[in-house]
Amino acid sequence: MASRLAALISKPQRWRVCRLAGTVRYRSTKQSVATGGSSQSDCTEDGLFTEEHLQLRSSLNKLIEKEINPYVDEWEEAKSFPAHEVFKKLGNAGFLGVNKPTEYGGLGLDFSYSMAAAEELGSINCGAIPMAVGVQSDMATPALSRFGSEELKRQFLEPSIKGDVVACLGVSEAGAGSDVASIKTTAVKKGGDYVINGSKMWITNGMQADWICLLVNTGQGPAHQNKSLICVPMDTKGVVRARKINKIGMWSSDTAELFFEDVRVPQKYLIGEEGMGFTYQMLQFQEERMLAIAATLLPLQKCIRETAKYTSERKAFGQPILNNQSVHFRLAELETEIELLRSLHYRCIAMFVQGHDVTKFASMGKLKAGRLAREVTDSCLQFWGGMGFTSEALISRFYRDFRLLSIGGGADEVMLSIICKYMNILPKMPIKKK
C-alpha cells in the first residue's frame, strides 16, 4: 500500500483552492447513517482535495475498518491500545509520514495530504487513537523533520515514520500547561552531555513511547529564548514513568506523568539550535491544532447522523422524536456549524501550504472546534435520553473524548488571547519593576 501511495508523489500536484471566499463545495453522501463511515466522497476537485487526496483517504479508511475499528471497544474497555502494533500497520502503509521526506520513509507529499489523512482518522470510533497517532505524525516529529541533524533523523525520525517506534511530546508540566514559557525542566551541559532534571505531565503515549521530543530550559535568559528541544530515549537511565493517569475520556490512549532524574543524553540529541526550542514548539503547535480540527470533523458529523437515525426510530408520545421541530431544527443548525468550521479549516490549510502564517486562523479553528464539539455532543446526547447516558451509545464516548479539545493543545482562553493579539486588542502586560 505504501508503494501505491508513494506513486502519488510523481503525479502533478493538482493543488487548487476554491476562489469563492474560501468556500468548498460538496456532494451529498450516500453512505448509511448506520455505518457512520467515511465521508471522503463529499469533497470534489473544485474544492480542497483532488482525486489523489481521496485515494489516500480511501486507503486509510480501509485500514481503519479492518485493523482498528473492530477492536476499539475492547481497547477502550482495557484503557489502552497496542500502540506499537497499530503504529507499525500505519507505518507500513505510509500514513505516519505523509508529508515527511521520502529519504526517511515518508511519502513526500504536501501538508494538504497530511490533513486529508488526519481528517480520515476521524472515522475511528473514538477520539483517543486519532490523538495518539497525531502525536506521532504531527506533534513530536515536525521540528525534528525540519531542523534536526541527519544523524538525529536517521535515529529518531525514520523509525517513527516506519512505525518501528512510538514517540511522545514532552511540553506540559504540572505548573505549566498552556503557559509553555513557564516550564521548569532543565538541561545543563556537562562534558559532552546534557543532564536533564524535571518532570512532565499529561504526556500522550508516555507509557508506551520509545523516545520523547522534550522541551527543556537550556539557559537562564528570557523565557522565549532559553528553551531547546531534545530527543530523549525513554529507556535512558533516570527516566521514570511515574504513573498512568486516569481520565474521564480518551480512555484507550495512555497518558503519563514522567520524571527526569539526572538523565544524561549526548548534546548531539539537540534538535536544531540551542535556545530555539520555544520557536520550534510554536511552529509544531500550529500543525497540532490543525490536526485536532481535522480529526474532529467526521466524529461530529457522525454524532448528528447517528442521532438522526436513532431519533427517527425512537418514538415518544406517538411519533418519532425526530419529528419534533426542536430536534430536526437543532440538528440542522449543528450541521451548518460543522460546515462553517470545515471551510475555515480548509482555508487555513490552503494558506499553510502556500507558506503563510496561519497562527490566527489555526487558533480560530481550534477555538471553534473545541466549543462546537462540546455543543454537538451535548445536544445530541440530550436527544438520546437515558440511552445517551450509557456506555453502549457511541455518542457518550464522543461526549467524554472531545471535551479535551477545549483544553489540550492550548486552552480556549489561550486561543482567544492569540486571536486578540493578531487583532491588536490584547492589553499589554505591565512592565515589572526590578
Note down, in words, how this protein is organized.
- With 434 residues, this protein is of the alpha+beta class.
- The chain is built from 13 helices and ten strands.
- It has a four-stranded mixed β-sheet with strand order 1-4-5-8. The chain has a four-stranded antiparallel β-sheet with strand order 2-3-7-6, with helices on one face.
- β2 and β3 (193-204) form a beta hairpin.
- α9 (277-313) runs parallel beside α11 and α11 (359-384) runs antiparallel to α12 (394-401).
- Mean pLDDT is 90; it is low at 4-46.
List the helices and strands in order. HHHHHHHHEEEEEEEEHEEHHHH
* Termini gap: 61 Å
Overall mean pLDDT score?
Answer: 90
Reported for the largest beta sheet, the result is:
4 strands, mixed
Number of strands: 10
Q: Percent range for helical residues?
A: 40-55%
Q: Give start-end ranges of low-pLDDT stretches.
A: 4-46
Q: Main sheet: which strands, in order across?
A: 1-4-5-8
* C-alpha Rg (nearest Å): 22 Å
